[in-house]
Amino acid sequence: MSAAAPRLVVGLGNPGAEYTETRHNAGFWFCERLADKLGVRFSHESRFHGFVANARDAGVWLLMPQTYMNRSGQAVGALARFYRIAPAEILIVHDELDIPPGQLRLKFGGGLGGHNGLKDTSAHLATNDYWRLRIGIGHPGDRNEVVNYVLKSARREEQAQIDEALDRALAAWPLIARGEWNAATTRLNARPAAPKPAKPKDESRP
After folding, report:
1. Which portions of this protein are annotated as coiled-coil regions (predicted)?
2. Active site residues
3. How confident is the model over 160-176, as pLDDT tens digits?
């Protein structure tokens, strides 16, 4: 497992206003919030096929590919090659069907879970050995409904859970930025505590 601090954080998603609020854009949501946290703004860089921000103080680039999901690797590969960023120094943030809304998984390498953005990224980097932050969006229950599901907005209660998970991910950013991956993994992969049930009213009291 790599212990290198990240030099590139990539949020995966689809460009265009019609996709902004869809589940498949969870990676974009994280990157936008991280940019706010780091006090940097994105600008379009055609040579990197996406929106790019340079957080100099943190020593990290942020990237939101504008190539559509299944060609994400074109943008990742272009920026990584130009700045000589190794795959182990890259964190890809993406939506994950196999994790419920409100949960996260941080991992290094491994399988791609059928995610087209990861498939193209691995093809351009010629390896699966990079970090991923998986943002749970839940599964529709029928694989034939997956495409329709990821390209729609989450239900209100699901979106609230996803937003809470993004807040937890941002809170763990200082650990990630220092390359303290084990500590960040332990924190982020823990399941959030279930909300306590409301106490029943005491009908005997006036």
Report:
1. none
2. 24
3. 999 999 999 999 999 99
